[in-house]
Amino acid sequence: MTRQPYPPAGRDDLVEELHGVPVADPYRWLEDPGNPATEEWLAAQGKLFSDELEALTGRDRLKARVAQLLRSGSIGAPAWRGERRFFMRRTPDQEHAVLYTVDPGETERALLDPTALDPSGLTTLDSWQPDKEGRLLAYQVSVGGDEESSLYLLDVASGERIEGPIDRCRYSPIAWLPGGKAFYYVRRLPSTEVPEGEEQFHRRVYLHRVGTSTEEDVLIFGAGLEKTNYYGVAVSRDGRWLQISASRGTAPRNDLWIADLTASSPDSPDLVVVQEGLDAQTALHFGRDGRLYVFTDLDAPRARICVADPALPQPEHWRDLIPQDDEAVLSDFAILDDLDRPVMLAGWTRHAISEISVHDLATGERVGRVPTPGLGTIGGIAERPEGGHEAWFVYTDNTTPPSIQRYDARTGETTLWAASPGAVEVPAVNTEQVVYRSADGAEVHMLVITKPGVEGPRPTILYGYGGFGISMTPGYSASILTWVEAGGAYAIAQLRGGGEQGEEWHRAGMLANKQNVFDDLHAAAEHLIATGITTPERLAISGGSNGGLLVGAALTQRPELYAAVVCSAPLLDMIRYELFGLGATWNVEYGSAAKPEEFAWLNAYSPYHHVREGVAYPATLFTVFQSDTRVHPLHAWKMCAALQHAQAADRPILLRNEAEVGHGASWRSGCAVGRFPSGSPQGRAAGRP
């Protein structure tokens, strides 16, 4: 096949010396999206991609099957406020999930429909939080995928918007005081008050009183602290206790303070240090029984739950309730106390498979296990804030769309409470968890999904992420099922850098240890080849964001091992990544090129800087999003130009550049009603690449 020539891209003779090392950057001009040369180049890349796409056969059939399997819709766990509950549901014909409320009389009504707010479909519901009585709702929306959330207030009974917008609220938690008259929230300083280029940072915690101007909001916390800090904030159900968490960027540690709001004013809380300067992640829950429950990985990289007196919240006063498990990672808990013997439900992942155990609330003794539908993933465990004997959780696995399961502690039974609304015929697949060894001998787990009856080498996609303590757990995926049904294999490697084996596993793949992640992926590929699942000529790798960095490094380190690469919203220039988007918040995960030792780590694997002319690289597709405010598309633009210049094989290097799309998925809308304050280590999901 004769391919069209790649769009011309000038190579500048730009070399900088960093810490005594020359660093070439021939495509720096592509960092400027407003440069006419960049615009011309992107337009030409778009035409090239479209032309290549038209030549592919079978796409319509696969696309139709994916759409069919997506008609399962989705359902979210309920958030209770008294006898009223709130939940998200997406029907088969909806692009965005809708927020519903069910009144005490069991009357269901749509409360917030993103498509009704904006028929163009570009507006997403980023998060929502009812007040403690369920009368008011704070919600955040953004447009075009930019995640620049604006905050609004809504009267639940009437459905009318009563306040907003309040801007600069990206990733803000909402912590209501009882009565719905005020709440704490997080907001960035105005751009006029921060140095140029730092507009995405400088967050502060404020107290807002409903019905007043934001000009009257009271600054509570954050002045003079690290510019990249994320803050979590929560108020206990009885309104007595305030907690504030601070994490430098996405660091796997946090500082933590509490204040007794009955002993000091909500406008000027007397904050007491719980932990400060410790290398640990901790979050607190103030129980209805007056005890303080502590979720922490201090001295327990797989996490433990402790109890303490709220008046003595520091680590020296903690007592283990549920100690660390040497094989499973603690992920969540819920308290059910309307029982003769109150219990705690503890959520775990064991090699990324979820389970829930039952413990005596007073002693922590394990007294049972919550039945689950299968070997899959369990979402956050929800309970009624005022107590009870029931809990709800989301369940999904590779062939099961999300459903809501209800556990009754009085009977010990789990029953289906709500299913995803669409009925789809899901193909049969086999899922096997395998163990292989990486280059240094470390044991790594991998899920391999195949079609029953298919033998021998077949086209295979290997997916990985390997960063920020994020676990790769089973979940329903229309695209994976379509691929496997067509005869392919799909493998998901639980690489170091993730959270599948706890915080030690995470740290084994960050900073100076990042090469372990790439080695784990190479070893996964070699295992799939050695066991006859695939061959190098039929093996593709796929990853997005931090996973885009993973596959970018993989294709430059072992180009002969992979036939194709899909690299989505990637980080690829690791020398300059801190200068764009939210990059400065990730140097706690990767390191900083400003420091000689850390520069050496980054320079050793930075994919853009390891492209070599005359190498036969895999066929590569970069997908990026013009409204991405986390990872700037420049990474993929520069890498694409470099690979097109260097490619020695007859395999295409293509770029898909989408407009009005951002880093986060449009269906991610959800409620920040978890046990931990968003912004805390356990509650924070956004902000990472």
TrEMBL record:
Its EC number is 3.4.21.26. Gene3D superfamilies: alpha/beta hydrolase (3.40.50.1820), Prolyl oligopeptidase, N-terminal domain (2.130.10.120). Residues 7-418 form the Peptidase S9A N-terminal domain. InterPro entries: AB_hydrolase_fold, Pept_S9_AS, Pept_S9A_N, Peptidase_S9_cat, Peptidase_S9A, Prolyl_oligopep/macrocyclase. Keywords: Hydrolase, Protease, Serine protease. Residues 476-666 form the Peptidase S9 prolyl oligopeptidase catalytic domain. It catalyses: Hydrolysis of Pro-|-Xaa >> Ala-|-Xaa in oligopeptides. It is an enzyme of class 3 (hydrolase). Pfam families: Peptidase_S9 (PF00326), Peptidase_S9_N (PF02897). Belongs to the peptidase S9A family. This is prolyl oligopeptidase.
